[in-house]
């Protein structure tokens, strides 16, 4: 499909979702308040720790703040764009509702992912940018346009990787009846990796969070790039990981569709 | 009293059906201890004591605190109440010849009692896995006082979650309140970091509120610290429990008329 057509479909889905959301004004900004409080608490936690220590694993207060802002930004964009669509996949597989998507002349994964965009998450994107700007001002580092472009590019790649991981874990229900434990595992790992920079993991845990479940690199790599501590190998590695996981995601999804039993029909 | 005990017993037995769920939720308690292990491992690489904690006592703090927090299952009860009100299922609790809050408390107590053994096992396993020189006190008075505080704290959390749950009479969907509450509570009860790390003025203010005594103080007592706060802790928790009891009673009386039992 051509990109313009995809963008047109996204725009249409966004409009439809917005009109549906307006019917429930009270929970419209729900994600903003919920995730906003989560990241606020995280900021408080690290501020408290930094009041006692100078650095954590070589990261000073500003770098850590930038790390939290980056994770918050990736999470907010995820919430805005595809989170609510992707999390509905297991339910639709189980109920057979997926039939409606695979019979439409649109890529089923694309439709499922972007049909539930959440406008209420947008303020969280701006709040995250606010955290990033504040953290960057404390870094005493000359920021060039190249730094910003490189950082934005890496955030985009990590957003793709985040999407891949979400879809992979929600494709598993094609093969097993109940996969709620896998989703809980995802929740625990994300909570862990948004609190600890990947550089703190050592040995087997580094292997686990840099390769098998690469949540460890998602906010760490863009932060390292911005701070000027990312090596060329690290830069190339993170891009290769995102590409490899994307290729695997599409192949896995196709395999899943082949195993789909359409429970309701 | 017997009917509440029977309710707790039924829920205790019902947990046996969800064995896999129970085991996974216990396994996931490792994440908090692991987080502490990695984070504080990096911090203690450069200094040996932070706010009176050594690396060992810090890990002991997280293991004990995870154990206590895992006993609190009232958050899911709050969600359940809210959902039942929204979909009309709450009617079945109204016609039960039992006090509704008592019923939900007994239900939650049954689940917590079931998890007690598994949590204890998990805590012991984490001690061995992370090779922690576990720093628990042998002072009987501290252990007894911590137990009393834990029970009062669980009752308070039950009341708090029940209160948010019944707000569904007015707001229908209290999910947002519940999630925000969960985010804030985990910080103010000292589940994320020991409250001793906060500035003294903030700690002083927090001692007037119940959250300080729900998990933080019992954990510190089990580590053999803060013994001078036992009496005030029990009094303050009793006060907050009584205050919330009253608040729940008034709120329920005022809001129940809004319930229309949709869906039945």
Strand content of chain B: under 5%
Number of strands of chain B: 0
How would you spell out the order of helices and strands of chain B? Answer: HHHHHHHHHHHHH
Outline the biggest β-sheet of chain B.
Answer: none
The percent range for helix content of chain B is over 70%
Largest sheet of chain A: none
Q: How many helices of chain A in DSSP terms?
A: 13
What is the 3D shape of chain A? globular
Tally of alpha and pi helices of chain B: 13
Estimated helix fraction of chain A: over 70%
Quaternary organization? heterodimer
Calculate the terminal CA-CA distance of chain A, rounded to whole Å: 29 Å
Biggest interface, chains and residues, is: A-B, 32 and 33 residues
Model regions low in confidence, pLDDT < 50 over at least 5 residues of chain B: none
C-alpha-based Rg of chain B, rounded: 19 Å
Number of strands of chain A: 0
User: Any low-confidence stretches of chain A, pLDDT <50, length ≥5?
Assistant: none
Distance between the termini of chain B: 30 Å
N to C succession of SSEs of chain A: HHHHHHHHHHHHH
Describe the overall structure.
- The complex is a heterodimer of chains A (265) and B (264).
- Chain A is an all-alpha fold and 265 residues long.
- Chain A has one domain.
- Chain A is built from 13 helices and no strands.
- The longest helix of chain A is centred in the C-terminal third of the chain and has 28 residues.
- Chain B is mainly alpha-helical and 264 residues long.
- Chain B has one domain.
- Chain B has 13 helices and no strands.
- Chain B is globular.
- Chain B starts with a helix and ends in a 9-residue tail after the last helix.
- At the A-B interface, helix 2 and helix 9 of A face helix 2, helix 3 and helix 10 of B.
């Amino acid at each position: 499909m051509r990109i313009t057509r995809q963008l047109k479909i996204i725009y249409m889905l966004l409009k439809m979702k917005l009109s549906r959301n307006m019917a429930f004004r009270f929970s419209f900004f729900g994600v903003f308040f919920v995730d906003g409080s989560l990241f606020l608490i995280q900021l408080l936690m690290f501020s408290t720790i930094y009041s006692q220590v100078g650095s954590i694993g070589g990261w000073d207060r500003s770098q850590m703040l930038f790390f939290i802002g980056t994770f918050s930004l990736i999470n907010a964009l995820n919430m805005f764009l595809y989170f609510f669509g992707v999390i509905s996949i297991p339910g639709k597989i189980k109920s057979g509702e997926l039939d409606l998507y695979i019979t439409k002349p649109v890529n089923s994964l694309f439709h499922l992912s972007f049909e539930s965009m959440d406008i209420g998450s947008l303020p969280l994107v701006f709040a995250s940018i606010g955290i990033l700007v504040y953290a960057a001002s404390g870094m005493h580092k000359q920021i060039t346009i190249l730094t910003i472009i490189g950082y934005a590019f890496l955030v985009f790649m990590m957003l793709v990787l985040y999407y891949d991981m979400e879809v992979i874990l929600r494709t598993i229900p094609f093969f097993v009846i109940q996969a709620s434990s896998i989703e809980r595992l995802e929740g625990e790992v994300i909570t862990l990796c948004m609190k600890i920079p990947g550089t703190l993991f050592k040995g087997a845990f580094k292997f686990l969070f840099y390769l098998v479940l690469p949540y460890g690199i998602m906010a760490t790599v863009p932060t390292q790039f911005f701070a000027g501590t990312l090596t060329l190998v690290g830069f190339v590695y993170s891009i290769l990981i995102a590409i490899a996981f994307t290729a695997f995601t599409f192949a896995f999804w196709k395999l899943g569709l082949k195993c789909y039993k359409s429970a309701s029909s | 009293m017997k009917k509440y005990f029977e309710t707790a017993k039924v829920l205790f037995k019902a947990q046996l059906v969800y064995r896999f769920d129970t085991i996974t939720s216990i396994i996931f308690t490792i994440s908090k201890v692991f987080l502490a292990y990695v984070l504080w491992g990096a911090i203690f690489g450069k200094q040996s004591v932070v706010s009176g904690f050594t690396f060992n006592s810090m890990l002991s703090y997280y293991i004990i605190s995870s154990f206590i927090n895992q006993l609190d299952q009232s958050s899911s009860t709050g969600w359940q109440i809210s959902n039942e009100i929204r979909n009309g299922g709450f009617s079945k609790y109204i016609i039960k010849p039992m006090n509704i809050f008592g019923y939900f408390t007994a239900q939650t107590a049954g689940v917590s009692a079931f998890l007690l053994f598994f949590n204890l096992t998990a805590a012991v396993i984490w001690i061995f896995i992370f090779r922690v020189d576990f720093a628990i006190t042998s002072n009987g008075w501290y252990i007894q006082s911590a137990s009393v505080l834990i029970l009062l704290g669980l009752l308070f959390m039950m009341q708090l979650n029940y209160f948010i749950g019944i707000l569904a009479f007015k707001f229908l969907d209290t999910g947002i309140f519940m999630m925000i509450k969960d985010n804030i509570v985990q910080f103010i009860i000292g589940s994320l970091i020991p409250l001793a790390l906060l500035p003294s003025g903030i700690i002083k203010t927090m001692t007037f509120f119940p959250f300080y005594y729900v998990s933080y103080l019992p954990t510190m007592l089990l580590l053999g610290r803060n013994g001078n706060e036992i009496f005030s802790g029990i009094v303050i928790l009793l006060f907050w429990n009584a205050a919330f009891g009253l608040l729940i009673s008034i709120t329920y009386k005022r809001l129940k008329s809004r319930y229309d039992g949709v869906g039945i």
